[in-house]
């Protein structure tokens, strides 16, 4: 393989790794490279991902005011992508301001230096961003810069890297599955009195979005969504499948009481979001919505139902899923490291 050791147009530059060119974002063609990498990585890690150039463009557009160029670094091998890192700023209801670092490396390049180099770049870039955020008052003047990085049990090399660099585990999410063959044996519990399920029409989308957002306010890492995110949700041609949703309405008030959003990737039905607003909780509505959503699996010809859940979900969703018969597939540990204020020249 040609020994490319350049790091172009990246600030700070990345130390060379044989066979890789590190560079910044160059334009829409990079959306395709990133989508290809995400799908290849998921396939290698036995996970599901249906990223497209369009979905990557949408995701990168949500950079909380950063230019994509400032918060994305790519490692290119020949004409394909070996790895990339991206960070963006989030203001979470419980954790306050955090810098979320997403590092994605193809299996062939793991532990080869690219992963550590990209993470180091992201930390240095975050440290600089945090300096500007302190100056503008977005971050407290003496506050460290909290970096949050998700990992996955299918990639132990990333977990090792994060732990080696001083990140500590703060939360664990789980991916769970229920085989379609077992769905038919589940009987949907009755809906609470005065609540009915109706087909989602376009005129309901905003109310359904707002109800879900309200229900998730006490969820770990919740961030109040922007209007842009609402528009991106409506425009997501793969995940936005209202014909597969189950929406519960309170007949007396005409309000949305809860909903389950679903979409299909390959041969799996994903329950993307299950929520019940507080006033309607603990009356069996969440269980009913889940049963109705999952109950679509045999008719759709999929092999299983999947969902992701915070293992410490404050409303005990994890236990509800377990009681339903969902079993663990994998875990997604989330790590955090607080970068202290650099003392002239380096970061902690
Ligand atoms: C998780 C969530 C959807 C559950 O909704 P819900 O309508 O409260 O769920 P259910 O009523 O079906 O079940 C919850 C509890 O109420 C109990 N319950 C069900 N029917 C009941 C009734 N008639 N009377 C009293 N309790 C009842 C259930 O048994 C369960 O409690 P238990 O497991 O201790 O027995 C809801 O709390 C929520 O929206 N949370 C925030 C968003 C979220 O975290 N979603 C999950 C993301 S993965």
In short:
The protein has 348 residues and is α+β, with helices and mostly antiparallel strands. Helix content is 31%, strand content 28%. A hairpin with a 2-residue loop joins strand 9 and strand 10 (268-276).
Write structural notes for this entry.
With 348 residues, the chain is α+β, with helices and mostly antiparallel strands. The protein has eleven helices and twelve strands. A hairpin with a 5-residue loop joins strand 8 and strand 9. Helix 1 (29-44) crosses helix 2 (53-61). Residues 1-5 have low confidence and may be disordered. The structure holds coenzyme A. Residues 215-216, 219, 274-276, 281-287, 309, 313, 315, 317, 319-320 line the site of coenzyme A. The site of coenzyme A (COA) has 19 residues, from strand 10, helix 9 and helix 11.
């Amino acid at each position: 393989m040609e020994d490319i050791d350049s790091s172009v147009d990246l600030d700070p530059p990345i130390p060379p790794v044989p066979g890789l060119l590190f560079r910044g974002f160059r334009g829409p063609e990079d959306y395709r490279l990133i989508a290809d990498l995400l799908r290849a990585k998921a396939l290698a890690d036995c996970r599901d991902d249906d990223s497209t150039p369009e979905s990557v463009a949408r995701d990168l557009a949500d950079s909380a005011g950063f230019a994509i160029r400032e918060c994305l670094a790519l490692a290119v091998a020949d004409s394909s992508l070996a790895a990339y890192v991206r960070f963006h700023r989030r203001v979470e209801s419980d954790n306050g301001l955090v810098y979320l670092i997403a590092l994605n490396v193809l299996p062939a390049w793991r532990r080869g230096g690219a992963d550590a180099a990209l993470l180091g770049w992201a930390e240095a870039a975050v440290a600089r961003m945090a300096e500007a955020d302190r100056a503008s008052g977005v971050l407290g003047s003496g506050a460290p810069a909290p970096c949050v990085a998700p990992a996955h049990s299918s990639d132990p090399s990333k977990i090792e890297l994060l732990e080696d660099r001083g990140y500590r585990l703060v939360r664990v999410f789980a991916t769970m599955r229920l085989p379609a063959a077992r769905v038919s044996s589940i009987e949907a519990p009755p809906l609470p009195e005065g609540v009915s399920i109706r087909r989602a029409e376009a005129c309901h989308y905003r109310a359904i979005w707002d109800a879900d957002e309200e229900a998730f306010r006490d969820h770990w890492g919740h961030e109040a969504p922007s209007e842009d995110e609402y528009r991106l949700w409506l425009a997501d041609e793969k995940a936005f499948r209202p014909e597969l949703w189950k929406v519960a309405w309170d007949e007396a008030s005409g309000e949305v009481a809860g909903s389950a959003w679903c979409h299909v990737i390959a041969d799996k039905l994903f329950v993307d979001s299950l929520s019940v607003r507080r006033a309607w909780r603990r009356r069996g509505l969440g269980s009913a919505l889940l049963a109705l959503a999952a109950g679509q699996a045999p008719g759709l010809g999929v092999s299983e139902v999947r969902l992701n859940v915070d293992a410490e979900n404050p409303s005990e969703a994890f236990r509800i899923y377990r009681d339903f018969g969902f079993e663990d597939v994998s875990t997604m540990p989330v790590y955090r490291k607080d970068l202290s204020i650099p003392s002239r020249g380096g970061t902690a």
